[in-house]
């Protein structure tokens, strides 16, 4: 199976995007997949979420400018099969710098191509910034598909329509003609509220089988894990959040294999 590149994206903040990136990456690694997690969010929460410090000069910033190979920025984590390209605050400057360069939309794709072709990874998972700026557009240009976390709340579908339009534009313009929606994962589900169930029903009506069966619960242990620098399966393996991300990751792996 060739190396797949999946972007975890939603321009709305606070929907569980980084939580999903970190925990899906860790769970797939635990299932034997060789996973590279690329943190492109200047907040660097995915970096600290897998136990790495935010270190000056460690991010993909210079690789995006074409000054160093991206492979030089790949770091191991304490977790088997899981590597990371960290982020740090200098990624804020990448938005400005990239806009001045030739092929500014293709910079991440150019940096990732040798990593993909190296055969070192089965899956490259990219944690996007929570905005549709140049960094996120670079991710959409480089990715095979998008995994979109949606919070179980009233305004959940608003951001999706914008991303759907953007996928269409990138396809039609030839920038990334093969970009697809890999799936939608419902996050922060609270079984005690009627609204959460209504939102899930509405999203399933809208996206059908693209919506994963697994619902990620709103859970204290999930919220605690990042402060210990651990994905949930390594922080509290027997918690509800851990069980949910393990089952979701099995769904994702099944989808990846059926897509070839």
What tags apply to this protein structure?
260 residues, alpha/beta, Rossmann fold, eight-stranded mixed β-sheet, 11 helices, 8 strands
Summarize the structure.
This protein has 260 residues and is of the alpha/beta class.
Would you kindly provide a written description of the structure presented here, covering whatever features stand out?
With 260 residues, the chain is α/β, with parallel strands linked by helices. It has a single domain, classed as Rossmann fold (3-Layer(aba) Sandwich). It contains eleven helices and eight strands. An eight-stranded mixed sheet has the order 3-4-2-5-1-6-7-8, sandwiched between helices. Helix 1 packs across helix 11. The protein starts with a strand and ends with a helix. 46% of the residues are buried.
> Which fold name fills CATH's third level, the topology?
Rossmann fold
How much is the average pLDDT? 91
Fourth-tier CATH superfamily name: P-loop containing nucleotide triphosphate hydrolases
Largest beta sheet: strand ordering: 3-4-2-5-1-6-7-8
Return residue spans where pLDDT drops below 50 for at least 5 consecutive residues: none
Number of strands: 8
N-to-C SSE string, H for helix and E for strand:
EHEHHEEHHEHEHEHEHHH
Approximate shape: globular
**Which structural category fits the helices and strands?**
alpha/beta
> How much of the polypeptide forms β-strand, as a percent range?
15-25%
Helix content: 40-55%
Specify the biggest β-sheet.
8 strands, mixed
Q: Based on the structure given, which CATH architecture is correct?
A: 3-Layer(aba) Sandwich
Distance between the termini: 6 Å
Task: Report the CATH C-level class.
Answer: Alpha Beta
């Amino acid at each position: 199976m060739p190396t797949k590149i999946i972007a975890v994206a939603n321009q709305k903040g606070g929907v569980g995007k980084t939580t999903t990136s970190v925990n899906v990456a860790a769970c797939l690694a635990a299932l034997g997949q060789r996973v590279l997690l690329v943190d492109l969010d200047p907040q660097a929460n995915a970096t600290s979420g897998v136990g790495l410090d935010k270190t000056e000069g460690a991010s993909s910033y210079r690789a995006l400018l074409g000054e160093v190979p991206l492979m030089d920025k790949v770091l191991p984590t304490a977790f088997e099969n899981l590597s990371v390209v960290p982020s740090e605050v200098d990624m804020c400057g990448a938005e400005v710098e990239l806009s001045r360069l030739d092929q500014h939309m293709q910079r991440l794709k150019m940096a990732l191509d040798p990593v993909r072709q190296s055969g070192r990874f089965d899956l490259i998972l990219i944690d996007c910034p929570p905005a549709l700026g140049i960094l996120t557009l670079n991710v959409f240009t480089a990715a095979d598909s998008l995994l979109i976390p949606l919070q179980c709340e009233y305004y959940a579908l608003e951001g999706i329509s914008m991303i759907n339009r953007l996928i269409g534009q990138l396809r039609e313009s030839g920038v990334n003609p093969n970009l697809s929606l890999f799936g939608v994962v419902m996050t922060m589900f609270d079984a005690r509220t009627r609204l959460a169930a209504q939102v899930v029903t509405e999203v399933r009506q809208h996206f059908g089988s693209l919506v994963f069966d697994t619902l990620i619960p709103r859970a204290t242990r999930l919220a605690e894990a990042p402060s210990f620098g651990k994905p949930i399966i390594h922080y509290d393996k027997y918690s509800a959040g851990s069980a949910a991300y393990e089952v979701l990751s099995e769904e994702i792996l099944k989808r990846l294999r059926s897509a070839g």
